[in-house]
Amino acid sequence: MDLVKIAEAAFTEKKVNPSFKAGDTVTVYYKIREGNKERIQQFQGVVLQRKGIDTTETFTVRKISNGVGVERIFPINSPRIDKIEVNKRGIVRRARIFYLRGISGKKARIEERRS
Q1: Which of 41, 42, 64, 111 lies 20 to 30 angstroms, CA to CA, from 33?
Q2: Do 39 and 32 form a contact (C-beta atoms < 8 A)?
Q3: How far apart are CA 61 and CA 86, in angstroms?
Q4: Are 59 and 49 in contact (CB under 8 A)?
């Protein structure tokens, strides 16, 4: 077995996150350190993609802030992430929905999956 994978498995702690995929609207609560103080900030948006496996898995979240699109990439196993909350499940046909970058307004809406 690969020594790097053994070392990664030994040093990373597995978090229990809810299942989500591209098209879902999530709120990510992550810790920010400002000087010697630490606080939790929220980032709510649509998941564009999930990428990687096991310890190197990341996901990209996009939101619109003051009319400007903001994207952020989060590692799933980051100790900085406090929790991930799934707000809405979206209906999309793709695993990577980068087409949202080019559209705005009503066209950029994602239909909600009812369950």
Answers
A1: 64
A2: yes
A3: 12
A4: yes
Q: What is the pLDDT of residues 49-96, one digit of tens each?
A: 999 987 889 999 999 999 899 999 999 989 899 999 999 999 999 999
Distances (CA, A) of 89 to 5, 23, 39: 33, 7, 28
> And the tokens for 90?
């979206």
Domain at 14-108: CATH code: 2.30.30.790
Which tens digits make up the pLDDT trace of 5-30? 888 778 777 778 899 999 999 999 99
Residue 111, token pair as written in the block: 């239909």
Distance between alpha carbon 30 and the CA centroid of its chain, in Å?
11
Task: Please report, as a single letter, which amino acid is at residue 12.
Answer: T
**Domain ranges, ordered by start, for the chain:** 14-108
CB-based burial of residue 61 (10 Å sphere; 0-12 exposed, 13-18 middle, 19+ buried)?
buried
Closest CA to 45 of 78, 75, 82, 88: 88
Return the residue matching tokens 């066209």: 107
